Amino acid sequence: MKHIVENDVLRFPHPVLKSTKLRKGKIVEITVSGKVFVLFRDKNQTPRAVPAACPHRGANLIKGKLNKEREIVCGYHAWTINGEGQGYSPSVPKRTCKVHSLKTWEKHGFIWIANKDVPDEAFPDFTNKAFNLIGSFTQKFNAPLKVVLDNFGEIEHAFQVHKFIGASKSKLDTVTFSVKIEEEQTRGFSSCEYRKQPFFFRWSYGLKSGDYYHNDWVFRFKPLHGSYHNYWTDKPNTVVRSNEFIITTFMTPITATKVDLHVFVQMKIKNRILRLFSPIIRFFTLLVTKYEIWEDARIARFAPLNPEDGNNWKLTNLDKQIFHNRKKTDTIYYGKKEYTEAIYEFTE
Ligand code: FES
Ligand SMILES: [Fe+2]
């Protein structure tokens, strides 16, 4: 077996927690790729992140408390660790130390972390100026990272798993899908005749019967995230309907079988009348997105625990992107030095 070197994934910024979940005076434990950290707000309310293991003898700092200076006081022997990672002992004041504190950002309603030396330019640029960010949330997946990754690299499951995206079962022959593989990203382009929906949904989205649904996405690896542009057109693909949204899903690996999916939803409503109803339409869109991603998480739980297995799978053209995503995850995200490419056969 080849020796594989994996780099620390925190050389890229990762979203880890919704801002509102880190309240003043509280300490929150988070895990990224098996490494455990604690988050807290300093005197300026800036989020801080340090390793959860106390530098003295490893007690979990989640059991500690914040003092008036908003430094963590360990619950065991009361060593103090501040947001910069400076630690000292109250019993032996000369004994000081420094732990690896992380860099944090508070952006788009989330707290993000990365290694201290990561520049601001490395922050993933996923917002589109023509769209408004209408909300964000976290969905937990009890599945290995590769299973979650695969789920977000294909559209075939839409008619079976989802209610609001994709075609109906009787219109699967209208589904088209293609991929484009680039150096640092992969793209997916899908379209189909849109499934039947209740009147309110069709009206609030400005849809007409026979319209086509499109989901075009780009998947990037620094860190792992896909941005899915959802929009509708008339059948000849000449008129784009009023409402479009972009769902961006960041995959933060927690352990070998757990992934936190942090989701950001951006929306554009072109129709002036529909715009008057934008609070309702946005709320509804966010609710639908939450529901659909919950459905993804629900089915992903049943995936095999050994996601490396893929050699015996019976693949089709619709699965084409997933192995490119797996490869780029290994080489770009994990920075593996060696990669043995498996050979897969696809049926068109
Ligand atoms: S283990 Fe934290 S102060 Fe001793
Ligand atoms: Fe899905």
UniProtKB/TrEMBL annotation:
<keyword id="KW-1133">Transmembrane helix</keyword>
<keyword id="KW-0001">2Fe-2S</keyword>
<keyword id="KW-0812">Transmembrane</keyword>
<keyword id="KW-0560">Oxidoreductase</keyword>
<keyword id="KW-0472">Membrane</keyword>
<keyword id="KW-0479">Metal-binding</keyword>
<dbReference type="InterPro" id="IPR036922">
    <property type="entry name" value="Rieske_2Fe-2S_sf"/>
</dbReference>
<dbReference type="Pfam" id="PF00355">
    <property type="entry name" value="Rieske"/>
</dbReference>
<protein>
    <submittedName>
        <fullName>Rieske 2Fe-2S domain-containing protein</fullName>
    </submittedName>
</protein>
<dbReference type="InterPro" id="IPR017941">
    <property type="entry name" value="Rieske_2Fe-2S"/>
</dbReference>
<keyword id="KW-0408">Iron</keyword>
<feature type="domain" description="Rieske">
    <location>
        <begin position="14"/>
        <end position="113"/>
    </location>
</feature>
<keyword id="KW-0411">Iron-sulfur</keyword>
<dbReference type="InterPro" id="IPR050584">
    <property type="entry name" value="Cholesterol_7-desaturase"/>
</dbReference>
